[in-house]
Amino acid sequence: MLPPQPDACGLAALDGLRGEPMERLADFRLIGPLRVLWPGQEITNDIVPTRLNAEVDVTGRIMRLRCG
Fold first, then answer.
1. Strand partners, 37
2. The pLDDT of residue 2
3. What are the distances in angstroms from CA 38 to CA 5, 54, 57, 60, 63?
4. End-to-end CA distance of the chain, in Å?
5. Mean pLDDT in runs of 10 for the chain (68 residues)?
6. What sign does the CA torsion over 46, 34, 38, 64 have?
């Protein structure tokens, strides 16, 4: 299995969204699918290089964005 590529999901265009409401992601055209990860949520180990993973807090604010 290939490790996720750092910008295969268009991460560079989303710089500066940390702390913003996850709804802000709708303002951008994403390269691939979006997976929103809530605190304590179990996730699968599958890697989709073009998928954007948005880790949010309990209020829905973006804490971290990463490809995979």
1. 55
2. 58
3. 22, 9, 6, 8, 10
4. 12
5. 71 94 95 96 93 97 96
6. positive
User: What's the confidence (pLDDT) of residue 7?
Assistant: 84
pTM: 0.85
What are the CA-CA distances from residue 50 to residues 2, 8, 20, 29, 53 (Å)? 12, 5, 22, 13, 10
β-strands 62-67, 52-56: how paired?
antiparallel
* Domains of the chain and CATH, by start: 11-67 (3.30.10.10)
Task: Retrieve residue 10's tokens.
Answer: 């268009």
Q: What tokens appear for 3 in the block?
A: 């490790």
